[in-house]
Amino acid sequence: MYLIFRCDCGRVLYAKKGVATRKCTCGKTIKVKSRRILQKVETAEDASYAVQKMQEEIYGSTSFRTADEVKNNKFFKQIDRKIKKL
Ligand SMILES: [Zn+2]
Q1: Can you tell me the distance from the alpha carbon of 75 to that of 62, in angstroms, rounded to the nearest whole number?
Q2: Which residues span the domain enclosing 55?
C-alpha cells in the first residue's frame, strides 16, 4: 500500500505505508501521518502514475509518459476519475 499526499510547496509525493517521513525535492521533510492522504494505491507503479497525473492536474504540464502508462488500463481510468473529484 502506498499513500499519496502533498507537500506544503504543492508537490505531490507518495510513500510506502508505514514509512514515517518522506523528503520532498524542495528540501522539506514531511511527516506522512500529519498530511491529508489524497489517495491510497497498491503498488509503487500505480503511486508513481497517480502522482504524475495529479501534478499534471495541478500544473497543467505535459510531462513524460511511457507507453505503459498510456495503454488502456481500467485501473488507471479509475484513478483518473478519483483525481478529477479532488
Ligand atoms: Zn515540498
Answers
A1: 21
A2: 2-85
Distance (angstroms) between ligand 1 centre and the Cα of 22 equals 10
The packing angle between helices 44-59 and 74-85, to 10°, is 40
Which CATH number do you get for residue 30?
Answer: 3.90.820.10
63 within 8 A of 56, measured Cβ to Cβ: yes
How many independent structural domains does the chain possess? 1
pLDDT in tens, 28-62: 999 999 999 999 999 999 999 999 998 888 777 55
DSSP for residue 34: G
10 CA from centroid of ligand 1 (Å): 6
Mean pLDDT, to the nearest integer, of 5-10? 93
Distance 74 CA to ligand 1 centre (A): 31
